[in-house]
Each structure stands twice: as C-alpha cells, then as structure tokens.
C-alpha cells in the first residue's frame, strides 16, 4: 500500500457517504436513511440502505456493506488506494499525501498489443480514405453529409480492396499475425494467406469508454450478397454487449448536461453531434444488456431513449424502458410515435430547429408505456383490457409518489373503462407481493381481477329495474322503445317484448294480466322467464317512475355496455351453465349478432 491507514481514516472523516454513493447511484430518501437499487446483485427493488448517521451502506439481500471507500472499491473494481483517492476527489478534499497514492501498474501485454495494433490500423484506414481508391468511400460519407470535422472526430476511414496489403502494413509496423487475429482483423484465405476482413468497406471505429479503438463496424459500398454492416467479431477486447457507441465522448458531455440520449445507429449520433449534442450513444443493433446498464448507471444522469418510431423501434424502446425501470435508472422517452423519421433524416430534411424540437419532445416513462400498449392492444374485449393492466402492473408498483400513481390510475381507468378503485386495489395487492419479496408473482394478482363482473352486474341491475318500471307504467314502455337499444340479457329482452305486446293491447299495465299472457304462451324456457319476472316483482324498487329515474337507468345501461363487449357477455353468460343451457345461449347470441348485423355489410363496396 502506498499510504498508511491514517490517510484513509482522514478521507473518511471528510467524506459524506450519501454524496459519494449518489455520484454512482440514484438515491431515494426514506426516513433518516437513503435507499438504492443494489449494484452488487440482480436487484429489482431498492434493497441497498445508506445511513448518513452511521456513514455505512448495507444491502439487506446480498449482504454487501461497508464505508464510502469500500463502496467505490467494489463498484469500480479498483484497489483500496485508488478508492481512497476517488472518494477524496468526489468530496473535493486534497489532504497531504493523497497524490503519492500510486495507481498499481498491471500491464496486460495481450491487451496492450491489440490496442496498439488497432491504433495503427485506424490511422491506416483514415489515410486510405483520402487516397484515390478511397474516394469511393469519401463520396459515400459526403452523400451522408458527414464532413471532414465529423470524419476526423469519429476517425472514419476506408479499408483497401486489397486486404492482403493491410495485413502486410500491420506486420511491417511490428504486429504479429497472432495479434492481428486477436484484434479480429485477419481472415485466412484458402491458400493460407491472410487478408483484411473489412476490405473494400468504409470504416466506423468503435471505442471503449477510455477512447481506445477496440473494434470496427464496416459498411459495404456495393450491392452484393454480403452483409451491409459487418462488425468485428467477439475478441479479447471487443464485446458488443459491453459497449455503447460514442460512450468515450458522451460520458463527459452527459455529466455536464445531466442527460444522455440512447439512439439506434451511428448516423443518429452524428446528427446530434452536428447540432452540438455530444451526449448521445448508439446501441449498435443490440438490446440493452446488464453491462450497458452498468455503464449508464456509472454516469448517474437522466437517460433519454431515442429509438425509431416504427413498430420494431417502439418495441425495442419498450424493452429498453423495462430494463431501465428494473435497474431503477431515471429515464424519459423522446416522443416519436407515429414518426417514420430518425434524427439523421430529420436534420437532413427538416433542419436543425426541427431536430432540436424533436429531441426536446419528451414523454415521462409511464406515458410512453401506456401509449405503447394502447397502440399495440386494440382493447376491444375485457381480456384485452385486463392484459393492459397486467402488462402495466410492474411499472405501477414502482411508483412511489401517490399523486403520480393517481394520475396513471385515472388514465388506465379512462382507457379500459375499469373503475379507478378496482385498479388501485390490484396495484395494492401487487405492491404487497413486491414488499414481501414475491417479485416473480406480481402479475399473478391479475388472475383475480375481474372488473367486468361488476360492470355486468350494474348493467343487469339497471335492466331489471327498467323492466319493473315497464311492467308498471306505459311511459316506461315508450321510453324503452324510443331510447334503449335492447337489453343484453336474453331473458330480459324476451320479457321486454311481452311487456310491449301487452301494453299495445291494454289501457293500463297489470301484473296479473302480464303473467297470464306469459303463461298462455308456448315460448321456449317459459318457466325460466316467469320465474325471473316474479323475482323482479319481489325486489325492492323506487316508488314513482320519474323521468329522472328512467334517464339514470338509461345512462347506466349505456355506460356499462361500453365497458363490455358481446364476446365478454357471452363468456360471462356461459360460466357455470349446463351443456344444454350453453347451447341455447350460444344460439341466442348468434341470432342476436345476425339481427344486429348491417344488411349492407356483405355487399360489394
């Protein structure tokens, strides 16, 4: 160790563990302590507790704990001395002896050899772009409006068509064929010679977070049967799932601005760079990985998802949002739904101001999630509406602010027609499971969520009451004929028809007379119909048949019918019925569908 323990103790005395850890993770105040999603295991709920009073942190799931110094040491995977130095830098504290802490020099000879090889190759590619043969590549870049400043900033280049000459150049620079192979460049031909796998393509160097070139993405210039883009294969240094394009430039800009855009491709990153936004990275065609999340977490800034507005892009954005939510990272979404243009197209076709406006049209994450599901789910049936609640539930349980939760409960209620309190109750059940450590079963609470039954019960209750009023008052019969589009319940609809028939042939309504009409009929299910009518008679009802009562019943019938579909009613009606009853219900349903069908539906348009 390059220092004694007293220096570490001195740094800890001047350190605030909340300030240190919050420079790595978003912290949530909870009572006298703070909580965060633990970075040392696959945490889904904030389980890491930070105590400003004790100046310790502790995860109550994986057990990891310690001081500000040990947190930095574990998080950055660095030596104890390096962690002491980093904590002091975060606190802007510069005690005597701090500069004497030497960073341990662990030389990875294989890594250093590959980095030197890729550095030399990048310069070679840049040189080749400005040669007569490279003009084809230069023309391509200029057609994409990538001027010299962008080409130099991102080290864009061209690989000669004679790939063997590239290998020869690297060997002359002292790089062994083994190193060139380890760098992911050399491809062996049938005759045993080696060639550059990127030959004849334009080159996009890919850098690690420190700015070292670790691989390339090479685009073809001719339309042939080869892949349009060809990335360096997995190597000792290059792992596409570990890296984000432009992270080396974006990291400083992101910390300065407080946000980072995640785009879909290189051209989008360049478009943002042209208007002065360097805080942008691209995913290079992969979904966000746990390693990407760790990179993003270390920046501790707001993430702004900016993927394409088409269906695949929105699907990718949805998956990314789920990953970010699970990790507890702050993020918003660029509102590009319905737009077919990416940032590069917007800049080139509509100009700088249009792109700036586009980038600043930000949606809170929950609004994006809701909009996504509303676009991808037609919500015609109760099951589809329940599916929306089911998919939305993991996001709802993570909302801490009651005001925010209430806002989204109302939005979901409006979208589905479900009662706000019904949705709130299912969220409470899900939160209880989360707090009890049953994360994997959160969505199971939806299995007991059946708001359609309440809607159907309200509908049937209103229909029964209107039937009773019709049996007592001709004004109610006229009201039904003029304003009610029939009853959903088959039995109630049959009773209504008999009431209308009776009213047409009698001066006043009479319970006994109506019952006699039914008993003398030869209608199918006669006894069932009579039993239901008697049950309606026996129920408690309001006294006077007023316009207000009739209009209230109509409003209930119409509003509850909007909550349920014909298919839902059929499904509900079949529950617990005998096979004979099911056959009758299905027959009535099919007949009703035929009666309601527009006679012009089958005509040629």
Helix and strand arrangement:
Layout: H1 5-13, H2 17-22, E1 28-30, E2 33-36, E3 48-51, E4 56-59, E5 65-66, H3 68-76, H4 80-90, H5 109-129, H6 135-143, H7 148-153, E6 157-158, H8 163-172, H9 177-182, E7 186-188, E8 194-196, E9 202-207, E10 213-219, E11 229-231, H10 247-257, E12 259-263, H11 266-274, E13 280-282, H12 290-299, E14 302-306, H13 311-327, E15 331-334, H14 343-350, H15 352-359, E16 362-364, H16 365-376, H17 382-396, H18 402-416, H19 420-435, H20 451-472, H21 474-483, H22 490-505, H23 511-520, H24 526-538, H25 547-563, H26 566-574, H27 579-596
Parallel strand pairs: 12-13, 12-14, 14-15
Antiparallel strand pairs: 1-2, 2-3, 3-4, 4-5, 6-9, 7-8, 9-10, 10-11, 15-16
Helix pairs in contact: 1-4, 3-4, 13-16, 14-15, 16-17, 16-18, 17-18, 18-19, 20-21, 20-22, 20-25, 22-24, 26-27
CATH topology of the largest domain: DNA primase DNAg catalytic core, N-terminal domain
Query: Which residues form runs of ≥5 with pLDDT under 50?
Result: 598-605
- Helix count, DSSP H or I runs of 4 or more residues: 27
| Beta-strand fraction estimate | 5-15%
Structural category is alpha+beta
Trace the largest sheet across and list its strands.
Answer: 1-2-3-4-5
Look at the structure and name the CATH superfamily of the largest domain.
DNA primase, catalytic core, N-terminal domain
What's the number of structural domains? Answer: 6
> Helix proportion of residues, in percent?
40-55%
Shape: elongated
- How confident overall, as mean pLDDT? 85
Number of strands: 16
Q: Architecture of the largest domain, CATH level 2?
A: Alpha-Beta Complex
| Main sheet: strands, sense, barrel | 5 strands, antiparallel
Oligomer: single chain
- The termini sit apart by 86 Å
Radius of gyration, taken over Cα atoms and rounded to an integer in Å? 35 Å
